[in-house]
Amino acid sequence: MEGRMYERLLRVMRREFYQQASVDPTVPQLLEKAEEEGVETAWHRYLKQQPQCGFGLLGVCCKNCGMGPCRIDPFGYGPTKGVCGADADTIATRNLMRALAAGTASHGDHARDIVEVFRGMVEGWVKDYRIADEQKLLGIAKALGIETEGKGILEIAREVVEIAEMEFGKPGEEPLRFLNAYAPARRKSLWSKLGIMPRAIDREVTEVMHRTHMGVDADPLNLIAHGLRTALADGWSGSMMATLFSDTMFGTPKPIKVMANLGVLREDAVNIMVHGHNPLLSMKIAEVAKDPELVELAKSLGAEGGVNVVGMCCTGNEVLMRLGIPIAGNFLQQELAIVTGALEAVVVDYQCIMPALVDVASCYHTKVITTDPKAKVPGAIHMEFDKARATESAKEIVKLAVENFKNRVKERVFIPKERMEAVVGFSVEAILSALGGTLEPLAEALRTGKIKGIAGVVGCTNPKVRQDSSLVTITKELIANDVLVVGTGCWAIAMSKHGLFKPEAAELAGSGLKEVCKALGIPPALHMGSCVDCSRMLIALAALADHLGVDMSDLPVAGSAPEWYSEKAVAIGSYFVASGLFVHLGVVPPVLGSPKLVEILTKGAEELVGGKFFVETDPQKAAKAMIEHIREKRRKLGWPL
Ligand code: SF4
Ligand code: MSK
């Protein structure tokens, strides 16, 4: 009797926990289903990890060499130095720099894969991709100083790709060519003066690994300076190339109406979820899913609706904004998509793929298909995506998914009904076009105070935060205060799901922003793409700063990553700080064990580069701080508050 009551009590508590896990109603519904079916998700595993290691949370655990691991006692009663003598400042900074390097490497390697395929396309051994946006390519060539007059498009493409390839590992001290082409002159001269001009992406990442090896760089400030250099290599070259080459090959996004949330899965169709980051795979899967033979096969197996491709995370953003492929959710919903019981396959490339997908899928009929040699998961089916025969390769993957429809157990299918309409795809070109081809209307709205400022909100979801809640709260607070919000990644998916990308959301904006949005027919929050597309924000802000004749650090602009989890977010936040921005983090990074590191990140950085980090877990307070920062910048510009 007592045992049964205890069980009931636990169940009530778990129910309450599921309600608190997210502000997205699909989440508690599917967490309940997961529990009934004995399936664990990230939320369950997060609970099992409690209490998380205090040393790890503070950043004062080091395992960089065989004399360790070493831990510093944050209260000063125990050891204050590791075996080698490294103190909390050195250890925490080295750890953070390694995370930043991993983030930069991830974006850079993503770019390298696209550049390689672009090279293959130019040379003719890659036949299934094409140049979809010649104007974009001509624009890149012009920015890089390539003479285009009298040259054919392939010749220009070859010259562009040659420069791009060298960005990863060119020798010498010459700055990165893409950074040189796109960053404003004032910023470049500051970075040169500080000695943090990045030279090559791989080189800067390698140098982080070298400096953080035992017995090399122990000086937190010196380490951070190189960290900023590495992050700049990411934002102004690695991520930027990923964006520019994707646009060239798949088209520059334009505003498009889409549907978002798990309700986009269909009972009557084969459901395939593309997940990861690189559009090379997801664009092909979306294309071949329309192949009449595969659609017929699906129908012959009872899927009357044919093949339904949906997205997850950033590769989802890539096909969402270019093809209008619906998006099933953001990071923390990847397992829940399988829990619906309606997913025939999850097809992944890399980054943000939980290895647990395989465990969850083992409780259903879903096949997890890995496709990249550098991202295999034990228990998944590995079908290497061969870019040289991309269409055929994608068809083989889709066929496997379609054939799996016969294994779906109809009685176990539950698809939440929630789905939301959104307008996405605001590339810099699309924003300019909405503004009539010039930045002046935006500049004027900023000067007069109709729009008080611009905020870039980015990043992930994280079980440490109620899913989507900080993303939504911060965005609503900002737009209500006449701050135009732009952003990428899982923030963008959250906004799609919660109705903030509908033009009608302008009603939630302050009177000035509302007027501008209504005049232009745009929502008050704009989808600029995937994580690598944070580079679009850099390009837009650089152009705005040049238009206004000020430095980027003078702009009434702030950034935020309210629910970040990824090392890539560390790199993104850092390149925005190095570019002069105030960047809020809503999840406390593992730095608190080093007061010196905290001091540099939240104060000292501003003296060097004009930008700094600000950590606040309460989204209301964070939004207030961002608005106050914007007011301060307006005050300095002499603009009305
Ligand atoms: Fe310990 Fe120093 Fe080795 Fe780190 S580098 S594990 S602090 S001895
Ligand atoms: S997918 S890096 S969870 S935004 Fe780019 Fe989302 Fe963060 Fe991955």
Description:
The chain has 641 residues and is α/β, with parallel strands linked by helices. The protein folds into four domains: 2-58, no CATH class; 88-171 and 178-250, Substrate Binding Domain Of Dnak, Chain:A, Domain 2; 262-412, Rossmann fold (3-Layer(aba) Sandwich); 424-637, Rossmann fold, CATH 3.40.50. The chain contains 26 helices and 16 strands. Strand 7, helix 16 and strand 8 (367-370) form a beta-alpha-beta unit. Helix 6 (134-143) packs across helix 7, helix 11 (220-250) packs across helix 23 and helix 12 crosses helix 17 (390-403). The termini are far apart. The relative contact order is 0.12. It binds iron/sulfur cluster and Broken Fe4S4 cluster (MSK). Broken Fe4S4 cluster (MSK) binds next to helix 14 and helix 21.
Please tag this protein with its features.
six-stranded parallel sheet; binds Broken Fe4S4 cluster; 26 helices; 641 residues; 4 domains; alpha/beta; Rossmann fold; binds iron/sulfur cluster
Class from secondary-structure proportions? alpha/beta
What is the tally of beta strands?
A: 16
| Number of DSSP helical runs | 26
Give the cofactors and ligands: iron/sulfur cluster, Broken Fe4S4 cluster
Strand order of the largest sheet: 6-5-4-7-8-9
The overall number of domains is 4
Quaternary state reads single chain
Q: In terms of per-residue confidence, which ranges show pLDDT below 50 for 5 or more consecutive residues?
A: none
Instruction: Give the terminus-to-terminus CA distance.
Output: 65 Å
Characterize the largest beta sheet: strand count, sense, and whether it forms a barrel. 6 strands, parallel
Tell the overall outline: globular
What CATH architecture of the largest domain do you see? Answer: 3-Layer(aba) Sandwich
The mean pLDDT is 97
> Quick one: CATH class of the largest domain?
Alpha Beta
